[in-house]
């Protein structure tokens, strides 16, 4: 039976040291049996730059060509996560790391949105620069009664955490599967 994708997302990935810091928080929450959702779905620490729940409007080969060209024009840049937050109206009971807004991060998002629009890809208001909220998930699908405990664990996370944005990838969901990634500043595709 042929499985149909629910959608695609473009994600910004980090250098190995920063990625490991985020994974450390995931592992602590999992060991304490608070949540292991992000580990179970085999996610990778990231900031979502774009997402579409309409896979029929996106062709991965088009995205690969676009992102390979786009990534070659953007150099890796510093990124700092400075706080732990959650969306107040969220029903998924989650926490995330908030990056300190930087010109490089905001410029990347603006240029990516423009590039997608030029290809005729609809960019929802959630990903337009004036309303986009960059974040890196550290806990998802938390049981409501464990929210305070999860926050207490995450509060021990030594912030700020600094590293580099290194590559951009495309994932298909659900289930989550990385389609490809491209290193920033080059035209080198990663398996």
UniProtKB/TrEMBL annotation:
Pfam families: 2_5_RNA_ligase2. PANTHER family: PTHR36039, RNA LIGASE_CYCLIC NUCLEOTIDE PHOSPHODIESTERASE FAMILY PROTEIN. This is Putative cyclic phosphodiesterase. It comes from Lupinus albus. The lineage of its organism: Eukaryota, Viridiplantae, Streptophyta, Embryophyta, Tracheophyta.
